[in-house]
Amino acid sequence: MTLIKSISGIRGTIGGTQSDNLTPIDAVKYAAAYGSWIKKQRNKDRYKVVVGRDARISGEMIQQLVMNTLVGMGIDIIDVDLSTTPTVEMAVAMEHADGGIILTASHNPKQWNALKLLNNKGEFLNAEAGQEILDIAENGSLEFADVDNLGEITKNDAYIDLHIDEILNLELVDEELVKNAKLKVVVDAVNSTGGITVPLLLKAMGVETIKLHCTPNGNFPHNPEPLKEHLGDLMKMVVDEQADFGIVVDPDVDRLAFVDENGEMFGEEYTLVAVADYVLKNKTGNTVSNMSSSRALRDITENHGGKYTASAVGEVNVVEKMKETKAVIGGEGNGGIIYPELHYGRDSLVGIALFLTFLADEKISVSQLRKKYTSYFMSKKKIELTPQLDVDSLLKKMESKYASEEISTIDGVKIDFAENWVHLRKSNTEPIIRIYTEAKSQEEADTLADKFISEIEEMAGL
């Protein structure tokens, strides 16, 4: 059981002992630290924070703890309840709130939950702000409101509809074109809030929808990370129903993957590639993804006359680089689409709407669309951390060993070889070292990953 405290938020397993897991006491402690940080940002009479959650079994409990802790600090709450991460992000901006919290552990299994923290723009906190909240939690003096100045909770269930309305109003989303294409889609929402939001969006765009695992009860029917090995039910149903394609989202609806009409994975890395291709066809500009993402985005960007830039891993880093380079589309290779014309956050719903419009405009199948792009193959492996593993030292040794290659150390160690690459980094969300590789064949990518795992284990004496 684990509690991970990082700039990405507070993430842990439910139950167990305080400070080792995400217990009620830990939820209150870090919510109070966040509330204290919110009050330091601006001196005003009233503060307002948006709070929402995915459908995890522990979500309602954690939400009540978090909201009432902030109420106790004199902070007003906009309770959007069952929602998505991108919806909460947009609600913060629409409400002119001082911040937001989405209670979700993203792709982690059901025993996990987390407090993901937003600033007053509805964007994830930068490293400095995240560290300040951690410091307040450990060393700060927390001050609560007196009885006449407690905050109030206001429930607002309109933001999912408002989110969808904003998507449909985008210039590059053409709902009439999609309606005329008469598409049929299977949706796997892993029994979380995508089961509410994705069918609503598809209905608005005139798409026939077949629901799979769309009951938002938090009982995940499979590992919620949208990878091929977890999606057998979806792949089979797409073929059985003769659907045009399948859609899968993670529990908080910020990761998006597709299955083609033959029941084959479109490729999680190619979600961003295809959406970027469509955007860049209509608007010349730059793109950004993190350095663990496929080279395919670089290829498509350069084909359209734009410039591609790689950022450190993490949504906040991608967003910062997108703003810096004035990127028109960006995201992460794990199926995270960031479309700044809507907002600066990973958003599966806008990704679906743009993909549907692209498909309807091209008048081709999903498998034919996938063939347009250079095929790269990725291997995503990991090494579990143990107390004796000195990750920083191991990465330094790797950097020295491969000093003759093209190396980036802005986030762990990325080694670019002529025909492939490897990225080694300590995860912000799990107690692991991630080993990502990419090559021109799956066998080559897997072999490269296994080679580096062996080298790390040998260096560590494992």
User: Strand portion, in percent?
Assistant: 15-25%
CATH architecture verdict of the largest domain:
3-Layer(aba) Sandwich
Count of domain modules: 3
| Number of strand segments | 20
Compute the number of helices: 15
Helix content: 25-40%
CA radius of gyration is 22 Å
Can you tell me the CATH superfamily of the largest domain?
A: Alpha-D-Glucose-1,6-Bisphosphate, subunit A, domain 3
What best-fitting shape do the alpha-carbon axes yield? globular
Strand order of the largest sheet: 1-2-6-5-3-4-7
**The biggest beta sheet, please?**
7 strands, mixed
Q: What is the mean pLDDT?
A: 95
Based on secondary structure, the structural category is alpha/beta
Low-pLDDT regions: none
CATH class of the largest domain: Alpha Beta
How is the CATH topology of the largest domain named? Alpha-D-Glucose-1,6-Bisphosphate, Chain A, domain 3
